[in-house]
Amino acid sequence: MTVRLSPLFGPRELRRIGHQVRQARERERMTQNQLANAAGLSPRAIRELEAGRSNPALATMVAVVDSLGLTLDELVEVARSEPPQPDVTRAADLGDGVTPLVRTLQDPRMASRIVTPSDPAASIPHPANPVFYHVLKGSVSVDVDGETIKLRRGDSLHIDAGVEGAWRPDGGDSQVLVVEAVRTNGAASQD
Length: 191
Fold this sequence. Notes:
five-stranded antiparallel β-sheet; single chain; elongated; alpha+beta
């Protein structure tokens, strides 16, 4: 008889366990293939487990946690803990300046914020990380390696890491969504 986790946990708990396995694997600087080899599983089994789409056997989970230096108790505790609350940013909270959109995630991979420049003449340098700009309101001029690109409401632009330049509002009523890739150490650069 194979004992599976699903009778004890629903889909949400299985996703949370998968998320914890992924975080532990990344902390150990292991790839999915490396974890699969260490646990004697297929890479697909690890992908499905981390995505919360699998119904792992107890023996599978023991092999995974042993390979990561964890215990089943640690994963079960996380799965049964209170689910995280959503991070809501109300429209009324969007004033002048920079409004971070993610404040409660413990280990975000992206830093997102809405920037409402109070000085229409101010130039805001591009971060060192890859960045995505989306104009929510008004228009902006973006300098990219000596070329100026004008973006209007609804336009978007992706810039790779290390591109020199800056952006500035065209007029006093601009608002830009800035989504920046976070560095591997968990810190993002700021505007």
